[in-house]
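name: query_chain
kind: protein
chains: 1
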Amino acid sequence: MRPQKHKRILWARAALCAVWAAAAFFVWLLLPPHAALAARTVTLPVEVAFDGSALPTETFRIALAPEGGEETVREVALDNTDREGSAEFSLALETGIYSYTLREIAGETQGVVYSGRVFSVTVAVNADGTYAVTASDTATGQKPDRVRFDNTYTGPRSVIGDPPVPVQKRISGDDPGRKDTFVFSMIPEREGDPLPEGAAGGRKDVTIRGEGEAEFGEITFSEPGVYRYRVAERDGGIAGYTYDRTEYTVVYTVTEGSGGVLTCDRVIVKNLETVNACVFTNEYRDPGKGVTPPRTGDSSHVLLYAFLTGLCAAVILLLLVRRRREAREET
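structure:
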């Protein structure tokens, strides 16, 4: 009995294993291949380019973000030699449909007009491991074959020579009793160099009435270099004034930094020394001063004047008497 019972137990176990094997086989037939846990690697290529002027090395940044997720950024460095480049995003995705936003992050490089394009990207991963990527321009709705960001470089933008050059007028000597007008000029050493707004005839003039201050205004530079200007007061020929002949040199140094960014430094020089402003001091002397008109009611020397007048009259009278006596004696 025991051997038979043992055989039945073995047969029962064998039958159970067969059932489990059959069940596993049918489950394997029913489940699709995408049930595997391993994710598929999806590659999303991106192209970046620029045209226009020669561009110093510029790094363009491309960002990819899933719905509700954080951005992943790739960088593409371009210059005048390599005007086109590419990058790619590698995504580990399981079977399904995924949505992303793809854009170029606008930089701050002067002269670069950034693409501004934004793409809506859909990635569909199939059960057999294949996948399809569809990109749509959110502005136009177009679906290009390639995701590409085209940029334009127009050259270095302008920079403003700031702050404007200040001018101060001072008057020494007598009080003019009025506010005369004084004119000051800024003239470039090199013909054609930029001048502040309102310039005419190759110079910029400002006026000050009496004592006071003024500014020549801002100068806009579009190219790197050293720009020199002469600042002086114009002789207006107003009576009583001795005009200040001082000349100042204003130097703007414009440099081009990384990415074509222009920066500007300004100094004012007087007699080889740096100063903060162009100060002109005119001396005024009243043209009528020194001629004292008679003062009515002044009796301080009346007696003296009367005495001298009487003395002169007596001398004249004595001379006349003497002359008559001499005339009588001769006759």
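note: Residues 179 and 210 are 4 Å apart (CA to CA).
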